[in-house]
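Example 336.
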Amino acid sequence: MRIVVLTGGIGGAKFLVGVRAYARRTGAEVTAVVNVGDDAVLHGLRVCPDLDSVMYTLGGGADAQRGWGRAGETWAVKEELTAYRAEPTWFGLGDRDIATHLVRTTMMNAGYPLSAVTDALCVRWNPGVRMIPATDDRLETHVVVSDPDPAPPAQRAIHFQEWWVRHRGALPTHRFVFVGAAQAEPAPGVLDALAAADVVLIAPSNPVVSVAPVLAVPGIREALVGGAAPVVGVSPIIGDAPVRGMADRCLAVLDVPCTAAAVAGLYGSRRSGGVLDGWLVDPVDAAAETDGVPVRAVPLWMTDETATAQMVAAAVELAGSVEPAGTRPRPDGVAR
Ligand code: FO1
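Predicted structure in complex with FO1:
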């Protein structure tokens, strides 16, 4: 079985630990298509938070408590940069993490695309799933905000990392813009993986700033909607609250309620032009109304690898029980 997971953020990395465990048990192959909208060039280095969260978490090098960056991290370079008042001082680059960004930036400056760099970094980290950035092209999430003080408040765009880390989202926020998305192409292997997939899972990642930028790459959403593989999403919201992070803050910017049902509505049912054939919710949200998308209620707390693997098994089972609305007989003639 071939499983493709659209993922981003720290929750997505934790979910992939469960997908890998499920795959090891069943012999499935896993491809993670990872958000790059959070990426930023800071102090001259290309930082890829979502790719690194997956790589470090599955590679055993992540700081589990922080959720990002390396275990056993030290901050000497950050302290020196702060002593120089070298902005941005609000973004913490750990010494070990910097080595990753140096290797990545050196390779990209030499002309290697991000997907090739990711493959090279994974030779060391061996995550146990194939990781592909959603695109090798520039795609950055920027956030249009107003500064509270000047009157009338002037709108301006800041990089997602500044919104997320410096301001914790606590600015009057108008919209998210995926800069470069319209010109971006799926990275090599993404569309092939989606075409060959037996099931596509949307990780319980932030739907607004982790999953949406992946779907914004021309060709990726279309590959889900028109593909033969059933698409099952896992709700990032349990009991009207995000499992972690600021999905509530991001959904509010879109005037979307912070509920499992509303996020399913955001992704849309494949029957009505969206991407979902199935939606996995926590039992507390079992009554979620989802515009006809079949729902399964299973515990969604990713307390450990076994619990997460059970979520994955439930998602795959749900995928097997739904007839994707966009079903076309596969090239080998075997209709799904
Ligand atoms: N998040 C923070 O809240 N503060 C930081 O200083 C910070 C530094 C950082 C460095 C590298 C990296 O890969 C991630 C980092 N993050 C930090 C997390 C990052 O902002 C988020 O993980 C994602 O971009 C949102 O999912």
